[in-house]
Amino acid sequence: MPNKDKGFEHYFTAFPKSRSRxxxxxxxLCGRSFEFMTASGLFSKSRVxxxxxxxxxxxxxxxKGIVLDMGCxxxxxxxxxxxxxxxxxxxxxxxxxxxxxxxxxxxEINNAENVIVKRGNLYEPVKDLAFDCVLSNPPVTAxxxxxxxxxxxxxLHMARNGTFQMVVRSKIGGKRMRMILEEAFGNVxxxxxxxxxxxxxxxxV
Length: 205
Known about the structure:
- Helix content is about 25%, strand content about 30%.
- With about 200 residues, it is an alpha/beta fold.
- The protein has a single domain (about 50-205), classed as Rossmann fold, CATH 3.40.50.150.
- Mean pLDDT is about 90; it is low at about 1-10.
């Protein structure tokens, strides 16, 4: 999930030091129009990245229940899930305070009223909840230990038969992350492939 945007190294930082430079993305996801306010210091601030797009366009959402977007950034994945199925309660978590503020604003912009955005490290802000689905475009630049914590922690915060759906770049740690996911869930499948990415799925049984 590398990003060529200047300042990308700060996006998994709690309090980015880069000066805020705001922008607006207008895009279509699964045929629906979305607008996202972005800012410097966040991942993929110039456009919806190909990995997030593949995850959004292939994710399998439950008919009802609660969903988590782990490492939500400015909110693409979680907001799309909330819009696609208004019966869901979608939680979004990020450590980056700038990302959290914009995710809340973007939920308003896209009329996603079934969204709750929380700031904190990994699963700590939602530790008392059991999710029916966890979605993630993990921050690979933060290091494999962080990615591993996202994968292994998911099964501890999921309801029975819940799914963990994660997009990975095929040539950057893809095989290793698939192994970690299989170790955590005892199973792994591929939901989609495209543009050098894969969307992996693990199910809690």
